[in-house]
Amino acid sequence: MKFLRRFFIRLSNFTTGRRADQRLREEMAEHIALQTEENLRAGMSPVEARRQAALKLGAAQAIRERHNAEQGLPLAENFLLDLRYAFRMLHRSPGFALIAIATMALGVGATTAIYSVIDATLLHSLPYPNPSELVRIEANLPGVGAHDVGLSIPELRDLQNSGIFQYASAYFFGSANLTGSSQPARIALKPVTPNYFAMLGVDAELGRAFDPHDATPGFNLEVVISDGLWKRAFAADPHILGKNLRLDNDVYHVVGVMPANFRDQGQNSEERSTEVWAAAGFFGDPAPPPMRSTRLPVSTIARLQPGLSPEAAQGHLDALVASLKKQYPADYPPQAAWTIHITPLAETLVGNVRQSLILLFGAVGLVLLISCVNVANLLLARASARGREMAVRQALGAQRPRLIRQLLTESVLLFVLGGITGFAVLFCARKFLLQLVPESLPRLNDISISWGVLAFAIVVSVVAGTIFGLAPAWLMSRLDLTSTLRQEGRGSNGSRQRSRLRHVLVIGELALSLVLMIAAGLLLRSFWDLFKVQLGFNPSRIMAIETWLPIPNDPKTDIYRTATQESVMLREVLRRNRTIPGVEETAVSDRAALPLGHGQNDINMFPLIREGQDLESSQPPLIDTSIVSPEYFHLLGMTLLRGRLFVDQDLEATPSIAIINQAAARTYWPSQDPLGKRVRLDRVQPNWTTIVGVIADARTESLADAGIPQVYFDIYQRPAKDLAFFLRGQVDPTAISAQVRTQIQSVDAELPVFHAETLDDVLSSSLSVRRFSMEMVALFAATALLLAGLGIYGTISFVVNEQSREIAIRLALGAQRRNILKMVLRQGLTLAAAGAGVGLVGALIVSHLMAGLLYGVSPYDLLTFAGVTIVLTAVAIAASYIPAVRAMRLDPITTLHSE
Amino acid sequence: MKEKPDVLQGTLALMVLKTLDVLGPQHGYGIARRIEQISGDILALNQGTLYPLLLKLEHEGSIVSRSGASENNRRARFYRLTSAGRRQLQAETRDWKQTAAIIARFFDVKAEDLP
Predict the structure, then answer these.
(1) Is some CB atom of chain A closer than 8 A to the CB atom of B7?
(2) Which CATH number fits domain B7-109: 3.40.605.10, 1.10.10.10, 3.30.70.100, 3.30.70.1450?
(3) Which tens digit of pLDDT belongs to each residue from A660-706?
(4) What are phi and psi of A186, to 5 degrees?
(5) Interchain proximity B52–A70, CB inside 8 Å
(6) Pick from A9, A20, A31: which is nearest to B29 by CB?
(7) What number of C-beta contacts closer than 8 Å exist between A and B?
(8) Which residues of A742-757 are buried (b: 16+ CB within 10 A; e: fewer)?
(9) pTM of the entire structure?
(10) What is the pLDDT of residues A173-191, one digit of tens each?
């Protein structure tokens, strides 16, 4: 305690700059005066009395120093002195300072940029109170290979009442037609159980969120809207509460507006920008009756009881599952092996982006490392120039720790200045840089250059400055005094160690940049392979535009209830679309049939039940299902292999038919003819569908995977609500959206028309995350190569400088200039070979780790490895060539004279 | 930068506290005189070292200082023991006596006394 008190007083004295010097001087003067009087009384002469008094007091300067040391914080004061000195040193060699600061600005700036992305996406993915309590709940049937099968309402109630969770909340993610305001719009809508916002721990900004104890079976006709929708569709009306909103022809009233900074949680950016939340109990219309066996395809997230770890909660859940199985054996057959699994919500949200971001962070970390090594190298080069200064200071009594501290202050200052410069550049260029980030990145809107990011930049700079300043400072301060002072370092012990360390640093740099370049090369090749892949369909000159038909809560009010009702509208829109100038062909499909375009959690996976399959013993596999009009296959250029396509004569009244792709035929009817086989997608309804055709595989689901089984149904037999109209031809992409809207709305004025995109754009944006990480890694690799080139250039120039005397003597003795050139180049090549050797080992490890990000190229691709090594060697030779030529052109006479 | 622990330094602090306890508020010179009188020549030289020590004790809260007028009406700084300082003095006196007693007993022991 006493120590602390003393420390704080000293700290405050130090910061306020208060000095008790005056007080001490007065006290000492007083002391001497009193002692002098005393001495006078004892009979001394006045001069002697004063002298004795001063002697008795002791050395005044030493006392003042100790007093001062007691008063303030000597460590901090010395630091300020060092800092001032460091600034002066940097000022004296501005070229060196500029290069070092620019290098560090590059390294720290790039690292900070990637960190800010990671900060927003991985570290702060859940902007809600106590985010670690939030978990995603998944029910699985591992016994039959079914994953995330959803929950039934009784199961959800069991979870809610289990005592494990504060709230367990289920929701769908979808969208709805917002009508009644100016232009019909499709908006992201989330029907949620009423405890959803209570579970997230967020309340409305205006009005209220849902009452978590609301027990309405179906929709309670209340909605909460987002701040964005409030401002866009309602002009930020302050009297919005209680006003009506028409969603899919049903009337809801607004009870709350969420805060402007609220972002919903979700798997993709569409879900995170949900604009309307509607509360529903999911056990009345339009949901089926709440049977235990009726699993709803809902997502479920929950908030754990405070203090309960996910592991402990999983233990409780396992016990709950076991007791439910005992209680309801009919609903949970043992062979299905029903389980419930929880995962921290934060882990489930970033998914596949995580890998790309970690790769980027690794790449940028290497760039940072290379910049640090480069600056350390520069510091070492300066060490030889400052050997004399260090020797003089040591001769004058400076201790080694003191010298090291001062040198460290210099290097940390350099690194921090670099870091701050990098941060400043990043801050100024943030608008431009954010445009480079692909839109599919989660939480893109939340990326910001904040105080936390600044703190990160400074901490990184200080840590790097300490680590990479330590070795040069250590070596610099270790001098043989006499020899250094006598002959300025030539051949002295310290300089040999320094040059060895410099070689190690350059080898490290070369190795690191080789690793980065190989990573970039492999990514480039995967990207190229994906880009050049045989699509199996032709996306050129095709435009897709979406519209959705409303799904009112009461099915009886639906004007598009049957396929026949819907087909009248579809055929009329298709006919009208064909009249648009430039349009050659048109088709319509559901959203699932949009090549590469639809979101990942569209509900388009259905269990494929084959005729004759025993449902008791095996779970039907889930298959990608699309609903298309007969023209779809021709429009997209997909080839029919066997059987027939849909024709206009296939109607609701005629037998139900389907087309599968080759992958489905291969997977489900191996060594059989699938034509004429019957399937259904629904366990309950006994309507069988006959397979009439097999088409060639196309990469409509995933560019990376050609063999995903698909089944297609005829839209005139099986109506779809989520529609995409296709147009092929020479159309004006800027005008087409409005033209199609006019045509669709002249058939039904209430339909929203949105999301007009050419398939070429869809294709390129489906590659955007890959392209982003490839471009970034390539950029970092180029930077690394540049830095490594500079490093090797600096080192070889330095070596030539040091050896200039030796070279001059050799030349004077008649050495061939060509041999001198070779000698220097050989040194550069040795470094490059060592660097490449180490780097290849590192690259093998790294490429193995990033195998998951590669497509169509082996992680040990010989071509990439060899090509990159050749490039690196070429750069190393080019960088050593300039100093080598300088060495070759050395004039022996002037060189030997100047020494 | 670490200063060597100095036995005299520790005892000097104790002497200062004891002096203030016995004599009441004193200025630096008075404390130095008193210590010199009692301890003889040990502290005859380098009396100035007293001042950094006084500052340290003040920072630690054992004493407080205020400026006032000395006997011959000069401005001087007077040091006074605080209650915390008094408690510290008592505790250290006890420790010191204990240590001294133990050491004394060790010195008194002769070989034949040992069992």
Answers:
(1) no
(2) 1.10.10.10
(3) 999 999 999 988 899 999 998 876 667 889 999 999 999 888 788 87
(4) -95, 125
(5) yes
(6) A31
(7) 74
(8) ebbbeebeebbbbebb
(9) 0.69
(10) 888 888 866 678 888 899 9
